[in-house]
Design brief:
The structure holds two protein chains of two kinds. By secondary structure, chain A is an alpha+beta fold. Chain A has helices at about 5, 30-35, 45-50, 95-100, and strands spanning about 10-15, 20-25, 60-65, 70-75, 115. Chain A has a five-stranded antiparallel sheet, covered by helices on one side. In chain A, strand 3 (about 60-65) and strand 4 (about 70-75) form a beta hairpin. Chain A starts with a helix and ends with a strand. By secondary structure, chain B is of the alpha+beta class. Chain B is built from twelve helices and 19 strands. Chain B has a ten-stranded mixed sheet, with helices on both faces. In chain B, strand 9 and strand 10 form a beta hairpin. The chains are: A alpha+beta, B alpha+beta. The interface between A and B is large, with 44 and 46 residues.
Amino acid sequence: MTTLDDLALVLRSKNAGAFYTTVDIFFDDIDKYRRAAQPRFLTVERVAEAYGIPEDAVHGVFRLEEALGIKVTVRKPLAAHEPANTDVMGAQQHLPLAWLEVPELNGIEPESPNAAQGATR
Amino acid sequence: MKFRALSFLNHVPSRVDPLPMIEQAAAWGLDAIISQGTGKDFGPHMLGSGTQFPVRNFKENIRPYVKAAHRIGVPFIMSVGIAGARQQLAECLDAFDEVCTEESLDLQVAVIAGDIDPGFIRKQIEAGVAIPRMDDHPALPALLRLEDVDATPNIVAQMGPEPIMAALAEGVDGVITGRALDVGLFMAPALRAGASKATAALFGKLMECCGVALYPGDPGVAIYGEIDDDDSIVIRSPDANSECRVRNLAAHSFYERKNPFREENPGGYLDLDEVTYEQLDSSAVRVRGPKWGDTPYAVKLEGAASMGFRAMNVAGIRDQRYLDALPDVVERIKEELRTAERFMHLREGVDYHLNITLYGRDAVLGSIEPHTGEEHEVGAVIDAVGPTPAMARELCYYAYLSLWIRPYPGRKTTAGNNAQRFTQPIVDGGELFRWSIWHLMPLDDPLEPFDRSVDRFPRKEVAA
């Protein structure tokens, strides 16, 4: 079993403002990037399930081949400043994605570079 | 060549000697030295409380760059004070004044406040102007209301490039602003030099966080950029030990942003969909292809309001029987506060908040934590927020005593249930702030709400 954590060189999360968390995943080679960027892997449905949030709280899944990077942005269930928020900078929220199993490519072509899916585009 | 600039962060100490970077930049050619030092990344606390990083840090960070700008004969443009409200701006201006005195500089400087007069916003609301929230989140009112303005002592706006362009047109030695759009600091001189909006905005985006966009990626390293006559951008590393690489520069578009392909600015958005990167050598990358779409002019307002005061207790729990009982105990304590006669005048979730966070169990991921039930100890943080410091302590004390000494099923530890971390049971956590305003205010005139003056520094002649 290969997880996203196994493939990624950088796997980080951070506030994108106080109301969204963004997860950036970078790879050190194009094959790993393409495997993780295959459209059937990080779908809006799977991201919503990993974070236990509704699909309309998934702002977007973005891919940029020049950066060998994938970005996932989700609306925070609790804003960063709310007293019950236990990760006020959002820096440990990458793990629900890190643990996901990434399927083999199996000949499925990755989407074109700069592809995005989600609420915004 | 249309425009060339060196960029550093004025709230982050330089991690390498700035002088060789400045010399390298001067050798390539310079038209301005630009530095951002405002942002909301550190949360609403600084805006609400009027605090910032130690101002001495700012003073020493800017010193070599202000001297260099004067020596080379180019303007500097700096946003200062983190939250960038009047109080933080005033402290930074005092430090800047000291630098001018100590370095025998005599400078004409435009100062632009980032504060917005609440009366200005009230007038807009009363006139029926819709001021919508920036982010679609239930913690924010969909449209800004008078009551939100009334609850918010400090309100700033991210000024766009226009007030800075107006200041530069007055021929000053430099511009110092309170809260400002990072990208706008770079757009202002680039637009004056004839760059397109798309190129000026992308130039700012690549430059604003300095060495974070380089390899290995250090905000304590400066960055250099130029806009060529064909409107393409070249970004260079002025530090001999850092490289400018396509992959890192492209990856910088991800940093703390919701969307790496589209960036909202006052009056339009930057579209990065077709941006291309070309490696020129190990320290330079050429960037082309940004697009700009016009939108109605609006600035982002930021305001922080008090939520009350916090008090905490920290305890360790090692006894397996108590670990097993904890879920019920936590619920019991919350119910005890809800039903206590002395707290009946307080509404849970409104007037007070009680959280008991169990480190080692599910503190970080909460209900989505998949890994449960195998811990050998747990750190419990009781965190009470109340309307006054005294009330926060009373709420915390009530919960602390219950977790510490009340019976639970199967208990043998009748002298105390947990390991108290500190000799004082209640630790004050200070005042709490929330983003009460995070809204987009339309403006007919991008200059109107921002106070601007030109001052001579040092502000007082030193007696001979």
